[in-house]
């Protein structure tokens, strides 16, 4: 398939996939399998490169330029040069790899014992911290800090330039945290949970959460960032939803349906035109996501520029200072008429914007969404 062609056919694999990630500038998809094998699918050339099985299943994969970082059940973490088919680095964790993030210059991996590891992608010793008592389920980075969420119900914040000294650990949330994204221009951190709520922290206030956005009937195991307000969420009920976060949770549409099977992982390509998802079967499913590139502008009636896909939001881990915690724009605890982008828009223009919003939502609708209209 060419990059500009229609959505590719789903990939049928030889074994169950555990992890996947798109290349940062082309339609190449890395997939880690339960057998430990790693497959890199070039969707444009319809070619597959295979890398030998590690010890145990391949739990996590992440692209770093033209290198694929892979983490295994055994605790091994291997970086593969895709062009040469050669192993370029090898590290060993205390537990099985459970989450990973590749920045411009560094790798960050979490394991199922609650450890977080960071090391320079070019060379250098591995830093380690243990902020959690259960498996690390998601890792994000923003403004020089690493944020990890875990099944112990806590969010942790660590600073690589200070040898992963813990900046803060949140209060326990009485719920497993399963996925994480930084939104609202860095003002908010949102985590998906086992019960389906999205738990939200205000930046710099790492104790108790500041808000909970309700609406998902089951667990939110994976999230993709569309822009600073909109997420794609993968749930254990099999639906790939498009939601706007704060105020509250607003369902904009359903992008895909796994027929009731849980969505375990999500990945978007370099221009957010294609989303890939995986479940408990041996298929990677592809979804046409081109509508998402204009959704934010239509839905908010602003000139908001779409954010880069999640794998292009490479973490800058070289900053010491936290941003000013001016939280008044997004804190839903006290706001009444907060952040209404149409408050000062003339009625005629507001009506036109409303029609655009309705057209956009109709384009996203599927039959499965009808049941969930009450959540919008």
UniProtKB/TrEMBL annotation:
The keyword Cytoplasm does not apply. It holds the Pfam family WDR55. Residues 300-376 are annotated as: Disordered. PANTHER family: WD REPEAT-CONTAINING PROTEIN 55 (PTHR44019:SF20). This is Uncharacterized protein. Residues 348-359 have a biased composition (Low complexity). Residues 318-338 have a biased composition (Acidic residues). It comes from Chrysophaeum taylorii. Keywords: Repeat, WD repeat.
């Amino acid at each position: 398939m060419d990059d500009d062609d229609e959505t590719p056919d789903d990939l049928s694999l030889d074994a169950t996939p555990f992890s996947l990630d798109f290349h940062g500038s082309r339609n190449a998809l890395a997939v880690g399998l339960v057998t430990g094998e790693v497959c890199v699918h070039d969707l444009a050339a319809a070619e597959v490169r295979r890398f030998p099985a590690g010890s145990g299943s391949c739990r996590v994969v992440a692209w770093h330029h033209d290198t694929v970082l892979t983490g295994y059940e055994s605790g091994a973490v291997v970086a593969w040069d895709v062009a040469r088919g050669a192993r370029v680095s090898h590290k060993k964790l205390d537990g099985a790899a459970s989450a990973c993030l590749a920045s411009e210059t560094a790798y960050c991996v979490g394991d199922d014992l609650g450890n977080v590891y960071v090391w320079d992608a070019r060379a250098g010793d591995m830093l380690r911290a243990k902020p959690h008592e259960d498996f690390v389920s998601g890792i994000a980075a923003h403004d020089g800090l690493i944020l990890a969420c875990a099944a112990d119900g806590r969010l942790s914040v660590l600073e690589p330039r200070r040898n992963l000294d813990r900046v803060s650990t949140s209060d326990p949330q009485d719920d497993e945290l399963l996925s994480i994204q930084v939104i609202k221009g860095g003002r908010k951190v949102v985590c998906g949970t086992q019960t389906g709520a999205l738990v939200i922290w205000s930046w710099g206030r790492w104790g108790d959460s500041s808000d909970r956005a309700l609406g998902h009937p089951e667990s939110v195991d994976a999230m993709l960032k569309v822009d600073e307000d909109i997420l794609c969420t993968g749930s254990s009920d099999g639906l790939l939803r498009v939601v706007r976060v704060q105020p509250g949770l607003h369902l904009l549409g359903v992008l895909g349906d796994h027929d009731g099977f849980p969505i375990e992982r999500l990945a978007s390509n370099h221009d957010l035109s294609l989303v890939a998802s995986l479940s408990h079967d041996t298929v990677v499913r592809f979804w046409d996501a081109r509508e998402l590139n204009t959704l934010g502008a239509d839905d908010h009636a602003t000139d908001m520029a779409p954010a880069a896909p999640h794998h292009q939001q490479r973490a800058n881990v070289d900053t010491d200072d936290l941003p000013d915690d001016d939280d008044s724009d997004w804190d839903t605890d006290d706001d009444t008429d907060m952040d209404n982008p149409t408050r000062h828009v003339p009625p005629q223009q507001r009506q036109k914007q409303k029609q655009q919003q309705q057209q956009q939502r109709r384009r996203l609708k599927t039959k499965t969404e009808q049941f969930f209209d009450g959540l919008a």
